[in-house]
């Protein structure tokens, strides 16, 4: 979501807007990163991750296969009595990864050897994304330490990659830079304005779409 520097500036987005932006960027993501695991940051990353999966299927033994999606729950914005929201001072983890249900596919802790794409709706301050990447790097390190064979450990280290995809990247100063080995993809770069996503509409969705015509050109 994210708040603009000047209240009142708003861009309303439809489901089709999001779908088309992701579809266009998926080609680049497949060519340049080829993810094998999505990690969706809830709740804004859930719908984009599901749409992206449609366009990034893998092929195994001649069959198209869906890329698995794992979910993490993180909170940055604090609610003030349902009236307004302010940016939180820290990220609060409400849910993290669980690979325990994968059965025979549960190897090396679940992360090693995968090309992991973190998915969220918007890169605003970047605080949530930085937190997610750092936590994943820590988990990867712990899982690598559990691998006893040095050659296998090095192979898994080389094959385990991290990247980020956001639907919108707000062109504003960020709280931190991403590590140089983490690839970054954004579907749309946007000014620091209020982005009204369709899944946040708690009223008439048809009216939400109609009001898109009032979007200011950016």
Automatic annotation (TrEMBL):
<dbReference type="GO" id="GO:0005737">
    <property type="term" value="C:cytoplasm"/>
</dbReference>
<dbReference type="GO" id="GO:0032265">
    <property type="term" value="P:XMP salvage"/>
</dbReference>
<dbReference type="InterPro" id="IPR029057">
    <property type="entry name" value="PRTase-like"/>
</dbReference>
<dbReference type="GO" id="GO:0032263">
    <property type="term" value="P:GMP salvage"/>
</dbReference>
<dbReference type="GO" id="GO:0004422">
    <property type="term" value="F:hypoxanthine phosphoribosyltransferase activity"/>
</dbReference>
<keyword id="KW-0808">Transferase</keyword>
<dbReference type="InterPro" id="IPR000836">
    <property type="entry name" value="PRTase_dom"/>
</dbReference>
<dbReference type="GO" id="GO:0032264">
    <property type="term" value="P:IMP salvage"/>
</dbReference>
<protein>
    <submittedName>
        <fullName>Transferase</fullName>
    </submittedName>
</protein>
<keyword id="KW-0328">Glycosyltransferase</keyword>
<dbReference type="GO" id="GO:0046100">
    <property type="term" value="P:hypoxanthine metabolic process"/>
</dbReference>
